[in-house]
Amino acid sequence: MNKLKRFIRDNRMLLFVLAAIYRFFGVNRIKGKRTLKVSWKGVFAYHMNVVNCGHRNKLEIEEGCRLKNTTIRFYGNNNFVKIENDCVANELEVYVQDDSNTVSIGHNTHFTGKAHLACIEGCELSIGSRCLLSSEVTFRTGDSHSILDKEGKRINYSSSISVGDHVWIGNKVIVLKGTKISDETIVGTGSIVTGKEFEGNSVIVGTPAKIIKHDVSWHHENLK
């Protein structure tokens, strides 16, 4: 099976043809595509739902991606969502609200289950390459509602989220505004990560999350 996948991946014309056939029978829907620029040649999409309520938005999905039951929603203008080549996702939801947001997912990143990515108020939400995200993970660059001090001044402005390369995020992790997770980091199950920068090659866990181990890395396989 792996040899067959490599053969298809190395023959781009065959990849494009098979992906187009797969999409044709995949019951994919794009609403508002007149004002949405979409690029998804060589993408294997099944039951994908794209909703565009805005203008000059752009969706770019690179070849080799395998997306099932994925939903992408644009509510605003001049937004950009990019998923690089060979990503895998099942039940991924990307929600973009307001103007001039960017959501990017690096190549060969895998979502193993349901995930929710919300990017609002002109922020950037970036996830690096070769990352592994377990099921029921949530990313939010903002709160979607205002919190005010006693003088009526807003105190909860949105802020960008950055996740580096080769990061492993466990089940039911929540990553909130202003978070920066560096390369080779492991985030433990059920952690809430918010508003801090974490060094690479570390393990972070807890509510709120904190570093409990340094100088570590991880591998997809159980090595002997």
TrEMBL record:
Stated EC number for the protein is 2.3.1.18
Q: Which SUPFAM superfamilies does UniProt cross-reference here? A: Trimeric LpxA-like enzymes
Q: Which domain of life is it from?
A: Bacteria
Q: Which InterPro entries match?
A: Hexapeptide_acetyltransf (IPR051159), Trimer_LpxA-like_sf (IPR011004)
Q: Return the Gene3D superfamilies for the record.
A: Hexapeptide repeat proteins
Q: Which UniProt keywords apply?
A: Acyltransferase, Transferase
Q: Name one GO molecular function term.
A: galactoside O-acetyltransferase activity
Q: Which PANTHER family match?
A: SIALIC ACID SYNTHASE-RELATED (PTHR23416)
What's the protein called, per UniProt?
A: Galactoside O-acetyltransferase
Organism of origin is Clostridium ragsdalei P11
The UniProt gene name for this protein comes to lacA_3
